[in-house]
Amino acid sequence: MGFHSYIVAAGFHTRVDAIEAMKQLVAEGTAPSLDEEGCQIYHWSQGADDPTLFLLYMEWRDKACFEAHIATPHVMHAEDRLKREKMLSEPAREWHFYPL
Length: 100
Fold this sequence. Notes:
Layout: E1 6-13, H1 19-34, E2 39-46, E3 53-60, H2 63-70, H3 73-84, E4 93-97
Antiparallel strand pairs: 1-3, 1-4, 2-3
């Protein structure tokens, strides 16, 4: 992992009744994301104190690989489903980093 790596963390707060649907989205999207060009880490976690909180931590070879990722059909499908089913209780948050 060189200094060009691009790191993205994203937080998702779901409705209580959408926790299982969110877990399904995670399961469906993880394998294809891991297979993408430049994907180094793609890891989901669920809140220990708040089961409605999900964290996605990603490391990509560079920003271009991340930008290609968010344009893939599986990511677009997941984002569409999040909106269509109103699964989130607040807008998702996203943070972008470069490693030190």
